[in-house]
Input
Amino acid sequence: MTPWLSLIGGGSLFAITLHGLVLVAPAQASSDNGLVEITGDYRYALHQPETLAEAKQHACTEALHQAVSNSVAVKERTASLVDSTFFHRLIHTLATQHVSDQHIVQQSEQGRTVYCKVKALFHADAVDRVMLAQTVSGTDQVLDQNRALRILSAREDTDGTLVVTYQALKRLDWLGTAYQGGLRESADVMVDFYDEQGVLVRSSRHPARKTATGDDVMNPGEVGTLRIAKPLNARSYRVWVVK
Output
């Protein structure tokens, strides 16, 4: 029998017949304007000193990243990509800047493990533009920033330690009581480590101080550095800040 490919139900299913065997697989719904409906889920174990709310937020963030990374548009364009740092930065950019109408489909908790499933519309036509922009800009680009903090660089040292350099955009006073209700979360450096399969190994947050042991005030423009021990089974990482 001659193999054939047909589109059923306006793009909802692909059916392939090969030597009498019918294979049916779901295809992502898309529209002419490049919007694709995506879904993703993630389970995450709470780590001290995280709160339950922070763990839930992290699970939903990772669920969205999973949804984007598993989309057809991303898979097709990154199938041969071997630079894991570039890949995680690409997914982070797409998930934070090229996704709309995102909402939580399901959320639960069991003991110290939280679960989140999300659905969103992904602007799939942005993949090529973002990849080109990140390739042209090279490694000197700002990795991430919010209203309080800018991540300037992240690199692995010769001893395997991750070195993160950041810059204060606002006055960060860790001794001020008013600060706790203002920029507190925005001034934490978030670091995620992944194994060779891209599964999250560890997530941690680090206060953006001028030095690791003191200097509780950072003025706008001042630069600080973090040195973070990398887990033995970590093969890639992502450095980001809370938006």
Summary: The first strand starts at residue 4 and ends at 8.
